[in-house]
Amino acid sequence: MMSDFEAQLRAASLRVTRPRLAVLAALRDHPHVGTDAVIELVRADHPTVSHQAVYDVLRVLTDAGLVRRIQPAGATARYESRIADNHHHVVCRSCGAIADVDCAVGHAPCLTASGDHGFTVDEAEVVYWGTCPECATERTPQRSASSEGST
Q1: To 10 degrees, what angle do helices 35-45 and 51-63 make?
Q2: Tens of pLDDT, residues 18-76
Q3: Residue 10 has pLDDT above 90, yes or no
Q4: Which letter does DSSP use for residue 48 in this model?
Q5: Using an 8 Å Cβ cutoff, are 23 and 42 in contact?
Q6: Packing angle between helix 18-29 and helix 51-63, nearest 10 degrees?
């Protein structure tokens, strides 16, 4: 039985290889990871796969539209396999964590530009910036034991 990944590769006229399958699996299980993390994830199961092979696979899969490369301002490139919709991202200013954000209202309202200058718009990229819950908790001032007793 052919896996979903094999079907995706064949539909994109790409050969089915172990490195390609491993990269797709890594991105399915770990969205928004950088190249180094993809290499670690792939090599955990396939230690003989080279760094260059992973770089090449990411490029090929991105070019074929099977993987999306995102690069918020000031951050390293990250990859995800969620490509079937026009969604956005929220990025933590402290730790760089990234999460998916669906379009806010209705059917992809972000594709209706206020002024498209004659372009046919087929994708919108919105990045929300803020602080993730973990970093917000770390920033919450904690009263120290020494300050509690003094007045």
Answers
A1: 110
A2: 999 999 999 999 999 999 999 999 999 999 999 999 999 999 999 999 999 999 888 88
A3: yes
A4: T
A5: yes
A6: 70
Q: Global pTM?
A: 0.77
User: What is the widest separation between alpha-carbon atoms in the chain?
Assistant: 73
DSSP secondary structure code for residue 33 in this structure = B
* DSSP three-state, residue 78: strand
138 alpha carbon, distance to own chain's centre: 24
Distance in angstroms (rounded) separating the CA atoms of residues 24 and 42: 9
* Phi and psi at residue 134, to the nearest 5°: -65, -45
Whose CA is closest to 32, among 65, 69, 66? Answer: 69
Exposed/middle/buried for residue 61 (C-beta within 10 Å: 0-12, 13-18, 19+): buried
Tell the burial category of 22 from Cβ atoms under 10 Å away from its Cβ (0-12, 13-18, 19+).
buried
The two tokens of residue 40 are 């670690």
Count of C-beta atoms within a 10 Å radius of residue 93? 12
For residue 69, the cross-strand partners are 79
